[in-house]
Amino acid sequence: MTAPATTREQRAWFFYDWANSAYVTTTATVLMAPYLTSVARNAACPGLADQTRCRTTLDVLGLPIDPGSLYAYTATVSTLLSALVLVLVGAVADRSAHPTRLLGGFAWVGALAASAMVAVAGTSWGLGVGLLVVANLCLGASLVVYDSLLVRIAGPDDRDRVSSRGWGFGYLGGGLLLALNFLLDLFHTRLGLDRATSTRISLLSAGLWWGGFTLVPVLGLRGVTGTLATPVERRRGVVRGSVVQLADTFRELRRYPQTLLFLLAYLFFNDGIQTVIGSSSLYGSDELGFPQSTVLGVFLFVQFVAWGGALLLGRVAARVGAWRTVLGSLGAWTFVVLGAYLVPQRQLAVFLVLALAIGIVLGGSQALSRSLYSQLIPRGREAEFFSLYQAMERGTSWFGTLLFGLVHQWTGSYRDALVALVVFFVVGGVLLSRVRMREGIVAAGNPVPRVV
């Protein structure tokens, strides 16, 4: 049985999933992609009645960019920056005596950027791009610290359950705020608001939610102190010493081939998952022709299904192992993407069936990947290794968003862009099937759970 003190810490830890999921769901997944696209199209084709017919490109640093691909490219840029920054964040976090202060700092800067998106209006697509990059970068940095805390509050046999419950709790929080924003969108005319204003208010609410609820884990986990890694020499300082240590991290990664293979697999299949999530609102509105209120309602449905799906797959993992469960979920993701390609325009019933399938596999595949990876990390290097994981985590997909943006720019079709993502699930699944989990856990110096 889990000790009461640890249970209290786990509950506090859950709340950061609850806090940041509001931004991930309302802003990064549902609203900002179509809203930023409309702002960009308004700048490129002012006065055009049907903006989806806009074929004028934007001049971004001398490059011609299709407004319909701007959001995907923005996610790609934020990922490239994350790849440079997050590994340093992980090294510093392992050597910080107060990791929850780092968690709060990154979260509150990201929440401030998310709240400032209320100012994105008219043709100010550049402001939207800048704020998205800052918010996504801070989200990734905070999640490096957050995920690394999992090993401090849960033992090896408990991590699948704790990670799944945290992810499920996050879907409840994100779903609750999305429900409130759905009502605002549904009744915006009765409140005297136009669609753009109601969208901006929803973006503001996501930032405030993220920042406000971050207080719970920061205060609840303040007793989690002490460094995980070997302290650096005093003359080097934490940051400089951490940079030096990063070189050792990449060299040491070759000593853990199963950990490296898992990371490569995760790079592919998580890019596929994140790109499907991030582009689905555009797909529903622009390709399938559903109004924003319908897209919001479908995403609200997905949020609550995903809560149950995370708990369901957590139970399945307890019986057959997380590795097999994640492999099975990747097969399901492949069929989901192929099915989405075939969904007819404005067929809500078919769209809801697709949403149901996404909800079932969404939370569980992500939560169990997190707990699986935690078993493959050498002791004392948790945040440092989780920084590599977070560089490939939600909001930081790069190959997927880049491919999605390029295929759309080449073909003008979101259907073609979406179906191209199947390759990520296939390659990721093949690589994951070759990971020898027990061998990797032992090599990392960790106890082997009863069921892997």
From TrEMBL:
<feature type="transmembrane region" description="Helical">
    <location>
        <begin position="295"/>
        <end position="313"/>
    </location>
</feature>
<feature type="transmembrane region" description="Helical">
    <location>
        <begin position="349"/>
        <end position="373"/>
    </location>
</feature>
<feature type="transmembrane region" description="Helical">
    <location>
        <begin position="127"/>
        <end position="146"/>
    </location>
</feature>
<dbReference type="InterPro" id="IPR036259">
    <property type="entry name" value="MFS_trans_sf"/>
</dbReference>
<keyword id="KW-0472">Membrane</keyword>
<feature type="transmembrane region" description="Helical">
    <location>
        <begin position="70"/>
        <end position="90"/>
    </location>
</feature>
<feature type="transmembrane region" description="Helical">
    <location>
        <begin position="167"/>
        <end position="187"/>
    </location>
</feature>
<dbReference type="GO" id="GO:0012505">
    <property type="term" value="C:endomembrane system"/>
</dbReference>
<feature type="transmembrane region" description="Helical">
    <location>
        <begin position="207"/>
        <end position="230"/>
    </location>
</feature>
<feature type="transmembrane region" description="Helical">
    <location>
        <begin position="260"/>
        <end position="283"/>
    </location>
</feature>
<keyword id="KW-0813">Transport</keyword>
<feature type="transmembrane region" description="Helical">
    <location>
        <begin position="394"/>
        <end position="411"/>
    </location>
</feature>
<feature type="transmembrane region" description="Helical">
    <location>
        <begin position="417"/>
        <end position="435"/>
    </location>
</feature>
<protein>
    <submittedName>
        <fullName>UMF1 family MFS transporter</fullName>
    </submittedName>
</protein>
<feature type="transmembrane region" description="Helical">
    <location>
        <begin position="102"/>
        <end position="121"/>
    </location>
</feature>
<feature type="transmembrane region" description="Helical">
    <location>
        <begin position="325"/>
        <end position="343"/>
    </location>
</feature>
<keyword id="KW-1133">Transmembrane helix</keyword>
<dbReference type="InterPro" id="IPR050495">
    <property type="entry name" value="ATG22/LtaA_families"/>
</dbReference>
<dbReference type="Pfam" id="PF11700">
    <property type="entry name" value="ATG22"/>
</dbReference>
<dbReference type="InterPro" id="IPR024671">
    <property type="entry name" value="Atg22-like"/>
</dbReference>
<keyword id="KW-0812">Transmembrane</keyword>
